[in-house]
Structure formats: structure tokens, C-alpha cells
Specification:
Elements: E1 2-8, H1 20-23, H2 28-42, E2 44-50, H3 54-66, E3 69-75, H4 84-91, E4 96-101, E5 123-126, H5 131-143
Parallel strand pairs: 1-2, 1-3, 3-4, 4-5
Helix pairs in contact: 2-5, 3-4
Amino acid sequence: MQKILVLHGPNLNLLGTRQPEIYGHETLAGVNNALHEKALIAGWELNYRQSNHEGELIDAIHTARDDGTCAIIINPAAYTHTSIAILDALNAFEGKVIEVHISNVHQREAFRHHSYVSLRADGVIAGLGTQGYHAALEAIMAAAK
């Protein structure tokens, strides 16, 4: 069974209640549960991690290097625009990396238009709402066939 790590960055624990006009009403638990069902049917294992702390996200990426994880789906949230440390950790990961953003960051404030994570990502999905996570999962599973 192949493993995928799904990383959710800061404030995504508030999904469904924080700025629903931008991020929608689905909760993080709802996102994870829907992904879990889709992956299980296809014979994949998903691990999830959400943290408001940069170091915890980096530690999860480091663990993924050694535990057989073949891909990472990451929504780095605000760390997208600031974290060279997360970029460096992702550069040390040899598997596939898909960056996901719920909103279309290119329609938002100018500072959100730059992503350090995109320098490493094999693909970037933005503006599809929580369906972006599903698109990332499908892309990873299709690439492994």
C-alpha cells in the first residue's frame, strides 16, 4: 500500500468557520474524511497533519523521507509566501509534491502571488476550493499507474 502525506498549514484547522466566503464551509475533518475514502477504495494509505507551527510541518516532511511516503499534498497556507525552510525540507524529499490552495491566490493580495513551495512542487492547484485536494490525490494516483 503506497502512502501519501497530506499537510495542512496554519489556520486550516479553522476551515469551515474562518472566512467561509473565501474558503467555503467544508471543515478540515470533512476534507480529510473524503480523501480517506477515495484513497482507501484505490488501495492507498493517507496520513494527515495540520499545524500552525512551521517546525512541525518541517518535521512531518522529514519523517516522510524515511517512512515510505511516496508523495506529499501540501497546503502551506500563509507559509507559502514566507517559508524557505519548508522549501528546503521539500527539496530533501524525493517523492512527488503537489501544492494546493483553496482560493485562487492570484486573485488576491499581491504578496500571495509568490510561492516558495512552487519552486519544488511538481504541480500547483489553486482556486478549486477543497476539490483541489481531490485533484491532487487523483494526479498522484494516476502518475503511479
